Amino acid sequence: MNLHQAGAAEPPMRRGGFVHSFAPGLATLFSYRARWLPKDLVAGLVLTALLVPQGMAYAELAGLPAITGLYTSILCLVGYALFGPSRILVLGPDSSLGPMIAATILPLVVANGDPQRAIALASVLALMTGTITVLAGVGRLGFVADLISKPTMIGYMNGLALTILVGQLPKLFGFSAEGEGFVGEVVGFVHGVAIGETVPAALAIGAGGLILIVTFQRVLPKVPAVLVVVVLSIVAVGLFDLGERGVALVGVLPQGFPPLTIPDVELSDLALLLAGALGIALVSLADTISTASAFAARTGQVVDGSKEMIGIGAANIAAGLFQGFPVSTSGSRTAVAEQSGAKSQVTGLVGAIAITLILLLAPGLLRNLPQPTLAAVVIAASISLADIPGTLRLYRVRRTEFSLSVAAFVGVVVLGVLPGILVAVALSIGNVFRRAWWPYQTVLGRVPGISGFHDVRSYPNAERLRGCVIFRFDGPVFFANARTFREQIQELARSEPSPKWIVVAAEPITDVDTTAADMLHDLDLDLNANGVSLVFAEMKDPVRHKIDRYGLTRTIDPSHFFPTLEVAVAAFLKETGAEWGQGAAKETD
Q1: Which end of the chain has fewer CB atoms within 10 angstroms, the N or the C?
Q2: In terms of domains, do 490 and 420 share one?
Q3: How many other C-beta atoms lie within 10 A of the C-beta of residue 355?
Q4: C-alpha span between 554 and 563 (Å, rounded)
Q5: E strand or H helix that includes residue 312
Q6: What pLDDT digit, counting tens, does each position of 458-510 carry?
Q7: Dihedral Cα 320, 321, 323, 328, nearest 10 deg
Q8: Contact present, 203 and 173 (Cβ < 8 Å)
Q9: b or e along 399-413 (b: 16 or more beta carbons within 10 Å of the residue's beta carbon)?
Q10: pLDDT-based confidence at 427, cuts 50/70/90?
């Protein structure tokens, strides 16, 4: 997001220079202001308290060792700080990507699990995702994020939230359960509870942590709820010796920093990894653009979608080279950084340095962190993914888009996370095509006291001009809807009393392709044979030029193209002496 405060003086930098164009984050660091440092330091330390437990929790959600979440957090923060354009956007492991990563890599991991192979596969996935995103940014393909409409994204996220919640319930209850797909996981969890596998101490610490996180987020949103719960749960483990009561703990993390690693995977794995990377890149881009736009709108700043894509791509590549996995923008962590006074990406660099110091100097700091607490962190994040108010609003205001949202939800729950994103994209594209295939169409009439001509559906008592029907078609006329256009015109021509003119209010028609041109040629001949003239008003110049190129004016009388509806109606009145009345034309379906 090329974020520049509207009307504010910008720090000196090489505008349009190579560094600013290729690495806007680095250019901002070159022009860093010393007075920002205290706030960036405080915000970075606050952010660290959130990054560590969430990074570990989301790594396990992705089917990876918890330590990889910290590796990923460090490198993606550094990568975005150098190549990202936003001064405050925070990237990291994300709850919405975790199930997608797991769905991609787990089928490729050998039986009984091989953590090193899983890490290698996840790293390749991050490299692929980063490469796709960078190439999309260089090619200025930010519009691909629009392939998922908001209603289908709401349904997708609702389905994702439910699958994440169900997948984490066994860990929250202190046991593990096997299951294939959503239904299998539900059956596995219910079976585990039924046969008494629940660990009471684990459920108490996990459920208590979840309640505290949700409560703090709603009642005291400025309090770092995750940090509070992590500290309290670690203290509880020491006070009540929960490790001896069957509560699984994180344990001591591996000490040190991961080396630069080129992951080694089989060539046969690349096809599935590429499919997963495409889906992850699409969701990550949609999330990043929407989050960046939301924070930019609050400060009067501007989003450069292409530079954002390059920045997030660089963050993924950096993570992939150091045993990390794909990342995305985090709205919650960005909000924490903003509330803590973050001024630049130095906030992220402080967080990266702090996590590195923990790994190097205090790897046992979180050894008593209960696994059910990590499950509570993930479940709380899944709850925030769901948008029930948005779903109910769709039901109230537009049932068609509500149905799309429900279909996307069902796609995720029934088919799985990766097929679910394909369902969401297909539904979004299908909805666009449906609107173009059957655009809104209506008859217009005159309303006393209101200038112009108006939709008879909105004004049922509008006057109609006897012998003349004014028809509006709200969309381009092309191969997919040419038959719909023809049938509507023919139906109007058969109405009683029979019209002499059918005037097409053509201002909303943005295009006419060759298929539609052939249709108009045949339609005009049929209408003329029945004594009806096809007339156009307010046709856009580019469309009129195409009509001329197609040679349609050899069939359609050139004098039947009018600049406005008023001029067309005046010409009809002059020719026929007709009068205005009510109910003289049939309304279209």
Answers
A1: C
A2: no
A3: 22
A4: 19
A5: helix 305-320
A6: 998 899 888 999 999 999 999 999 999 999 999 999 988 889 999 999 999 99
A7: -30
A8: yes
A9: eebbbbbbbbbebbb
A10: confident
Cβ–Cβ under 8 Å, residues 421 and 282: yes
Of 379, 409, 384, 382, residue with least CA distance to 394? 409
Place of tokens 């987020």: 217
Look at residue 507 and give its three-state secondary structure.
coil
Task: Judge if the upstream peptide bond of residue 497 is cis by omega within 30 degrees of 0.
Answer: yes
Same domain for 128 and 155?
yes
- Residue 71 to residue 358: CA distance in whole angstroms: 11
Provide the whole-model pTM. Answer: 0.74
Q: In terms of domains, do 411 and 494 share one?
A: no
- Number of domains present in the structure of the chain: 2
CA 190, 192, 194, 199: dihedral to nearest 10 degrees? Answer: -120
**Residue-level length of the chain:** 589
Residue 5 within any structural domain of the chain: no
Same domain, yes or no: 557 and 408: no
Tell me 139's DSSP state.
T
**503 & 420 share domain:** no
Q: How far is CA 503 from the centre of its chain?
A: 42
> Are 268 and 327 part of one and the same domain?
yes
- Rounded CA separation 530/491 (Å): 13
Backbone angles phi, psi at 266, to 5 degrees: -75, 145
Question: Shortest CA distance to 22 belongs to which of 278, 240, 307, 274?
Answer: 307
In a domain, 286, yes or no: yes
- What is the model's pLDDT at position 27? 81
Question: How far apart, in Å, are the Cα atoms of 337 and each of 288, 316, 386, 519?
Answer: 16, 21, 23, 59
Residues 245 and 99 in one domain: yes
In this structure, the answer to whether residues 32 and 180 fall within a common structural domain is: yes
Q: How far apart are CA 588 and CA 442, in angstroms?
A: 6
Q: Which residues pair with 463 in a beta bridge?
A: 446, 582
In-domain check, residue 120: yes
Structural domain boundaries enclosing 454: 438-582
- Residue range 131-167, pLDDT digits in tens: 999 998 888 876 666 667 888 888 988 998 899 899 9
Q: How far apart are CA 583 and CA 26, in angstroms?
A: 69
Give yes or no for a contact between 444 and 470, defined as CB atoms under 8 angstroms apart: yes
- CATH number of the structural domain spanning residue 529: 3.30.750.24
Q: How far is CA 383 from CA 387, 389, 401, in A?
A: 9, 13, 22
Domain boundary among 406, 430, 454: 430
Dist. CA 354–CA 338, nearest whole Å: 19
Pick the last residue of a domain from 381, 399, 430.
Answer: 430
Alpha helices in 321-386 (DSSP H): 331-339, 346-361, 371-385
